[in-house]
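Lab manual, section 2.4: Encoding a predicted structure.

Procedure: take the sequence of the chain (59 residues), apply the prediction step described in section 2.3, and record the output as structure tokens. A sample record is shown.
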Amino acid sequence: MAHLPQAHAQVRIPATYMRGGTSKGVFFRLQDLPESCQVPGAARDRLFMRVIGSPDPYA
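Recorded output:
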């Protein structure tokens, strides 16, 4: 298994995963996000991309 850089360390954030028909989503409470991710911007974008598995760490 490849060693993942520190930037990809696991982060624990409470979330709810919901599915309805063919749609799926991960939902967070704003106050549960890290402080840097509670406002729109690059930090929040990076977090949400990691949640959905982008970029693929094994590619």
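Check your result against the sample. The longest helix spans residues 42-51.
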